[in-house]
Amino acid sequence: MSYPQQPPGQQPPQGHGYGYGPPTQPGYGHQPPPPPPPPDKSGNLGVILLLVIGLPLLLLGGCGAVFFVLTADHGSVAVRDVLETEADDNPPDVQLDPGTGPPASAAPQQSTAPEQSTVPEQTAAPEQTTAQQQSAQTQPQTAKIGDSITLEGRDPGLKVAVTVSQVVSPATPADSFTKPKTGQRFVAVQVTLTNQGQAVYSDSPTNGAWLIDAEGQQYRASIIANVREGQSFGGTATINTGDSRKGVIVFEVPETAKPAKFQFALNSGLADQKGEWELSTT
Fold it and tell me: What CATH topology corresponds to 141-278?
């Protein structure tokens, strides 16, 4: 038996005991199976990486969840506190009665409004009364001849009743030394002063007296003029409580002037309260 010739430089196939050269192992027609490969270490490396990276992420996720729950609970408590504070500051107009169920009426709040509105009126009433009293004191009290007006002075307890009993126009000079000027005449007003207060009256009555004519002209009293129709106060008058003084206050006015009013005030005319009498000449 002859074998086929191989071309030069070409090796015959291996693995068989026949056909193309000597067998690999004598006595067998096939090669035994190769040994199993060693275990792959790359699979264990993936598990290790998964544990190293995944376990911290899992722990961080759990802590984040706990923090979120605590924060959400604290936020809800703060919101609930704010809502309760606003509810206390702004109570609802209608409240529910837990026992009976029907809503409570808002009438009590409306009923308190009139009480609040009456407080300023009650406090304002004394102020208005005081202002009216002050205005009444500054405005002259009007009377007629023969009437009496009680006036109060600036000193505590000073109170004098003033009575105008007579007006003489023209009045006659008591002597030749106190004659009126040319074109002038004397007008005498008889006044009675009675001390009705607790303080002693000591003042010059002529300093607190004025005469007003029909044209609105005002005249001061003459200090040195004396007339025959009555005795002047002679300067200062001192009147104790319960006592009285009577005298005439003389004015020098134009002959054409017609006396219309007489005014008088205590404290030499500086007191706030003034008395006024309408005159009718004789």
Answer: Immunoglobulin-like (2.60.40)
